[in-house]
Design goal:
The protein is α/β, with parallel strands linked by helices. Helices cover 32% and strands 14% of the residues. It has a 6-stranded mixed β-sheet, with helices on both faces. Strands 5-4-3-6-7 form a 5-stranded mixed β-sheet, sandwiched between helices.
Amino acid sequence: MTDPDRGSKPSSEGASTGKRKGGGSRRRGKARKGAPKTSGVTDSVLEVVAAQPHASRRPDIEEAEGPVRKRKRRRRSRSAQSPSVSPETVSSALPAQPDAVAPVATPGDAKPGKKRRRNRGGRGPQGRPLAPAAPTQTARSAPAAVPAPSGHNTHHAQGPRRGPAANERFRPQPGAEPWPDDLYAALDLGTNNCRLLIAQPTRPGQFRVVDAFSRIVRLGEGLGSHGRLSAEAMDRAVDALKVCAAKLSGRDIRRMRLIATEACRAAENGEEFLSRVLVETGLELEIINRETEARLAVSGCSSLVGREARSVVLFDIGGGSSEIAVISIGENRSSRLANHITHWTSLPVGVVTLSERHGGQHVTPEIFEAMTREVEGMLARFDCPPLTDTSGRPPEDFHLIGTSGTVTTLAGVHLDLPRYDRRKVDGLWLSDDEVSAMQAKLLSWDYEGRAANPCIGPDRADLVLAGCAILEAIRRRWPSNRMRVADRGLREGLLTDMMADDGVWRRNRRRPPYDRER
């Protein structure tokens, strides 16, 4: 066969069968620089094209100067409008083999041994940057036991990795570096509740909950009258702690802290009970003092204190004690809100102890006022300057923060929730009038009415008004136009402090390759 521009050519060459003799490539569409481009037609088609008038021929088939990529771009952009060869002309020149693939005409003077690299420099055939590949989901993600944002770690949920249940299995290996994919655990055994959180650090100052547990155990039941933990209460607490131990043994925990508060702190047999816990569950709990408890409550709620706030009174109404911290924030705000505590106190009264002294099921307005005045007498001994402006009113940049079952219950009743929802309660603002209205509403209900409310239930029906009495005493001592509700507390404070101490939120830290054995 004869090419009108290049002379004789081989008559049959496959589209992509490798290199021919002399080094020329047979890759489809990969003609050499300076060679005429053909569109996969036979030599007979080329003859038809050569016979056409010069004005009707496609300019990119001519001997063109300049880069191949530029010529290729022109050919593609003009191919839709090219009048050079009509479909009828091409079809008449093609051989009578309907299923055959037409060979590609390749110039004979191409430089041997040179191949153009496809998409050099990460650019596409039209010279545009290639779009980045969509990120693929790795195996390191698993569903959490509680609602949480996406991006979990499946490897932490595959079962225990280290020996029998004991705190040692969760402690980091010597020289191990903490990284954001590590898990942290915090357990708070209080007078009324047993709570556990397992979380993973995310953005600076924040973490994602991977697993959680909460159960009302009433460990301090009867403590006020006997000074000891009862056998029934200890059994309930141990059962709950066994659940926590099972959750912890199924996770790869880098660091954990397990604390006990007022019930174990005040009971004569508190240490004896913790020894039993260690034997039966493998969990070693530490009894923290009241100052530590107050600081942890502040750390847990630090993200709810806005930048505009200059002074805050944060209170945690527990089952056996109530912690109160006065926070004054200047221009230079520390990354740890607990550093701004100026005064703090721990009242030896909580919802369990106060309701046992005054009765929690049938509470009249007179009983409610008696409970409030008892707490007011305790607060009167707390030496703290008043937080008011020159007119005697609370300043606009001051507010209360309440973190306890009492304030979250008030918020749930205020929102009239058919079922308690932490996402709607945590961080909610309540005005002073709204708090007063909710307390009056609860006081107007009898015990059965409180127990029937989905945000209270029978477990809290005899405790909620005692908590409201403590809240009322605090509001009288520190009047405020508004109060913020926090469904968080000691567990969040423990997690925040551990992660901050390990430096997992420091910026510009390079993460090492994930090479742990699983």
